[in-house]
Structure to design on (313 residues):
């Protein structure tokens, strides 16, 4: 199998450590990961019929224009092998006959970037693609998925720091947000089998990075090298401050100090089963959340989101 045709997708709940793993694997001599998140693959998949016959250059151009409209920052700053030139890429796709499907157009774009970086495989780190892994596997039948999982209470703390980006305005909603991701990922992934889907816990990656990266390399059928952990050599680590440092073993269980007792109780009551299922111990009795409280917290989040959107107009 041509390695270029076997993409790697890093997925997970928001703030789970996907970026750390992205930069680690980007340092692998065979693997090319852009330094941002694409976001355009699933929208293109949903709207593929709107682009008509992809044998026609004008329709390929429309696809590339749509990609640029969706993810211009990613294309301008996170592809380090090629320049996203719509005219040139349209001509190349036509000349090379790489326009048989939407998947082929997308994969060719990533492949060209990988080849220009001297790499054999391409990858993409876009966390929300976890919810669409079945669609991605349908598009890219030889794809592999790495699902990184982090204690939801730490994810919640990190989401609160960017609450407007994620539209997460209370602890209950953050808990359910996390639960949807991790449960969906495991449910879909387990159906793929262990040659296509692999789970890694963020905390394990911090505690035993060499062991975990060797495990991931074995899953990917790629050789391990100690250089892989020196992810800062990629030169773009400044996009995320923590990536300017070596792996921080203490960057876990922050919720124990930074969450209030009430927040911990709300979170654990909301998703107690999921926390324990994924190996994260509870420190409260975690009584089930009453229906009226569930309605209140969901309504609260919807209301704050509505106010935010209204006053931004």
């Amino acid at each position: 199998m041509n390695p270029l045709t076997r993409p790697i997708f890093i997925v997970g709940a928001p703030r789970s450590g996907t970026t750390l793993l992205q930069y680690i694997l980007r340092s692998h001599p065979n693997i090319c990961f852009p330094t941002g998140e694409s976001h355009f693959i699933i929208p293109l998949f949903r709207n593929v019929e709107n682009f008509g016959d992809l044998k026609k250059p004008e329709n390929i151009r429309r696809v590339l224009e749509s990609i640029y409209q969706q993810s211009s920052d990613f294309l301008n700053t996170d592809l380090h092998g090629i320049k996203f030139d719509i005219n040139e890429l349209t001509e190349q796709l036509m000349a090379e006959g790489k326009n048989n499907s939407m998947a082929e157009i997308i994969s060719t774009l990533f492949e060209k970037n990988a080849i220009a970086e001297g790499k054999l495989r391409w990858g993409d780190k876009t966390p929300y693609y976890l919810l669409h892994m079945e669609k991605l596997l349908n598009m890219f039948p030889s794809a592999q998925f790495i699902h990184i999982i982090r204690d939801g209470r730490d994810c919640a703390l990190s989401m609160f720091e960017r609450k407007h980006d994620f539209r997460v305005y209370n602890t209950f909603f953050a808990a359910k947000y996390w639960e949807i991701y991790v449960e969906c990922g495991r449910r879909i992934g387990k159906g793929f089998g262990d040659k296509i889907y692999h789970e890694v816990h963020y905390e394990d990656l911090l505690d035993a990075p060499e062991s975990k990266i060797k495990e991931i390399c074995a899953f990917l059928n790629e050789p391990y090298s100690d250089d892989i952990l020196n992810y800062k050599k990629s030169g773009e680590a400044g996009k995320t401050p923590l990536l300017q440092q070596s792996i921080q073993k203490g960057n876990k269980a922050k919720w124990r100090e930074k969450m209030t007792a009430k927040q911990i109780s709300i979170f654990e009551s909301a998703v107690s089963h999921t926390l324990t299922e994924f190996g994260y111990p509870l420190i409260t009795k975690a009584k089930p959340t009453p229906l009226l409280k569930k309605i209140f917290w969901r309504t609260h989040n919807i209301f704050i989101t509505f106010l935010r959107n209204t006053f931004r107009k």
